[in-house]
Amino acid sequence: MGVPVRRFDAVIVGGGGAGLRAALQLSEAGLKTAVLSKVFPTRSHTVAAQGGISASLGNVQEDHWQWHMYDTVKGSDWLGDQDAIEFMCRTAPDAVVELEHFGMPFDRLENGKIYQRPFGGHTQHNGKTPVQRACAAADRTGHAMLHTLYQRNVRANTQFFVEWMALDLIRDAEGDVVGVTALEMETGEIYVLHAKAVLFATGGAGRIYAASTNAFINTGDGLGMCVRAGLPLEDMEFWQFHPTGVAGAGVLITEGVRGEGGILLNANGERFMERYAPNLKDLAPRDFVSRSMELEVLEGRGCGPHKDHVLLKLDHLGPDIINQRLPGIREIAIKFAGVDPIKEPIPVIPTCHYMMGGIPTNYRGEVVAPKGDDPEVRVNGFYAAGECACASVHGANRLGTNSLLDLVVFGKSAGDSMIKYIREEMPTWKDLPADAADRSLARVARLDGQTGGEEVADVRAAMQRTVQSRAGVFRNDANLKLGVDEIAQVADRARLLQIKDKSKVFNTARVEALELENLVEVAVATLVAAEARKESRGAHAHDDYPKRDDDNWMKHSLFFGSDRSLRYKPVHTKPLSVDYIPPKERTF
Amino acid sequence: MKKMRFSIYRYNPETDAKPYMQDYEVEIGPKDIKLLDVLTKLKAMDDTLSFRRSCREGICGSDGMNINGKNGLACLTDVASLSEPVALRPLPGLPIVRDLIVDMTQFFKQYHSIKPYVVNNTPAPERERLQSPEDRKELDGLYECILCACCSTSCPSFWWNPDKFVGPAGLLAAYRFIADTRDEITSERLDNLEDPYRLFRCHTIMNCVDVCPKHLNPTRAIGKIKDLMVKRAV
């Protein structure tokens, strides 16, 4: 086939925080780098992060990276890999200072240092008292960070391929990654991008749920590409429900609201988190708060005519704090909940927000997969960072503000690993396989040829209904088993997707169909992995197995799409320089 | 259920000799609150209808369009506030790729032309550069821009000279870096704008202020740049 080939040292798929941070590293090293993004980079979903980025700067109170590490391990419910967690928390202060030097407009304290606010699960002395660790730019920290990283890339002359959607990963006969295929949306043309190293920074896939804080573009494209290329996905049963999505609309209200002093109330006007988490109260980690909220609703103490949500009260903070620290939230509440939080509480419900699982990597950003007896053999030429990757720093539950940190820390470390790999191991390009573009061409040709098949909107709705109802905040055996069957049917229907628009120029119907194929891979992985895990850990709360079971289940799941099978690999219990943090009961 | 009428600009360069307005009638359910909700519904009915969208909460800047004659974001526009038939057109003044999708190359070129990044050649300290809360406050109302282009594409000066006039979005960004105490090249930035077109084509028509979905004020920022130019001239 005459598919045009373009050649680069490195190809980065995704122009959000992780992709842009990695791009900066590669561009400044003088490597020929292409950054592909489905949307103009500043439209990537990093832009929607609100509350902050964590680092133990200690600008307000005493803080240490070891405390940050402890909180992250405990937050992860001991599923996080302690080497990766140490790496992230130890690097955090430098990563945040670097962003400041790049020009990020952080809020400031009176002494001119970066402003830090309290956040869920952030503590001093390993869980004793809350600490102000979240470095913030009002409640637009993600926007400030993403624009700053984009701006820095403009300065570095990074080459962007805007509105290009990667379609498939290209691996050669040895399994090494040698490039990607991609669709230029404006022309409808398909290209092969030949590279010495490929980074996936494709973000999350929250759109598998019916109610999600995620953008339309969060369709798990990197994960779909991995499954089709025979690579596993790790810990896909763990999805974070953010406690405060606007009821009905799904739009995010930052945990920073509670960091600034906001509280959750049930129908009786009771601050119920005092009952569930006597120490951290409303600032317990997200999985914990979401379950508590759900229990309040299940036990009949929900608010509103349908008793289906709780209230987030912040009027007691006063207009000054709200306008200065939470202006975006006020705007969102007025626009999407119809209430002005200066006067009234915001109706909120736990809403799907973040994918803890993803493409298995180590803390250097290298993608790893089992080979023989070794569960973690490097896949040559392949890297992943950010929400699409599973390093795993978030384990079974991510702490708020660790996501933005993850993006810059692992974006940079993946970039460094790629530079080293390209310079030391890749004097020239490996050959492209003869069939490099075949899978992508076949997918697009099938869509162009299909008539009388399944409507994209219908299949997407069926998938979202299934995942929402079978893999929610609380799970049980019977429901998960049904979910596995139902999602298999959805996957069958997804093979017959049809679009009426057969044109080439900016065909968004085609893009949505290709995205849905990726989402369905993620949804299948989620249900299969969730059904198999017979314990409760972090965000995976199982009614039939309500306790964490470290003897049998302190291990990462690996999902393989070819036969929908699971394998497991051990959690990394050896940090890089400090002592192992052994499992404890998780109370707050 | 209430029905609403829409009239939407359609153009597919592969099949259409020229653009036309297509009428749609759609039932508005209880969940169809924002214009983007309705567009998503229309897309499920007619998958050839093309528009950009992503975050659906007014922070990514993808879904700027001309709504009943005024630029705005579909995701922040209440359907109930619109008079019928609701006329939807692409952002004015930019080349049209297809339907409501415009080619934003010129818009971003102008944004890039103002060096949209902090330049500070003093060796960086170990820790953060200090900035007082008052100095940081100078950036409020500037850094929040989402590059949706609603402002620049509502500006007659930008329509006439998109290649020469930086436009409200780019000039707002220019002042964002001038106002940043960490940036060291104010005078170079002013030189870069001292030109009959780049800055001075702004005739304070203030359409930009009127349409900005983030309630920013590019005209005020432009005025401040002009003040600085006057100040350094005397």
Strand residue content of chain A: 15-25%
CATH fold-level label of the largest domain in chain B: Fumarate Reductase Iron-sulfur Protein, Chain B, domain 2
Question: Helix count of chain B?
Answer: 8
Shape of chain A: globular
Distance between the termini of chain B: 66 Å
CATH architecture descriptor name of the largest domain in chain B:
Orthogonal Bundle
Main interface by residue count: A-B, 62 and 56 residues
User: Helical segment tally of chain A?
Assistant: 16
End-to-end span of chain A in angstroms?
Answer: 60 Å
Description of the molecule:
- The complex is a heterodimer of chains A (588) and B (234).
- Chain A is of the alpha/beta class and 588 residues long.
- Chain A has 16 helices and 24 strands.
- In chain A, helix 1 runs parallel beside helix 11.
- The radius of gyration of chain A is 23 Å and the shape is globular.
- With 234 residues, chain B is of the alpha+beta class.
- Chain B folds into 2 domains: 101 residues, Beta-grasp domain (Ubiquitin-like (UB roll), Roll); 130 residues, Orthogonal Bundle (Fumarate Reductase Iron-sulfur Protein, Chain B, domain 2), CATH 1.10.1060.10.
- Chain B contains 8 helices and 7 strands, in the order E-E-H-E-E-E-E-E-H-H-H-H-H-H-H.
- In chain B, the strands form 2 sheets. In chain B, strands 2-1-5-3-4 form a 5-stranded mixed sheet, with helices on one face. A two-stranded antiparallel sheet of chain B has the order 6-7.
- In chain B, a hairpin with a 2-residue loop joins strand 3 and strand 4.
- In chain B, helix 2 runs parallel beside helix 5 and helix 5 packs across helix 8.
- The longest helix of chain B has 16 residues.
- The model of chain B has no long low-confidence stretch (mean pLDDT 97).
- Chains A and B meet through helix 3, helix 4, helix 10 and helix 15 of A and helix 3 of B.
- Chain B: Its EC number is 1.3.5.1.
- Chain B: This is Succinate dehydrogenase iron-sulfur subunit.
- Chain B: Keywords: 2Fe-2S, 3Fe-4S, 4Fe-4S, Electron transport, Iron, Iron-sulfur, Metal-binding, Oxidoreductase, Transport, Tricarboxylic acid cycle.
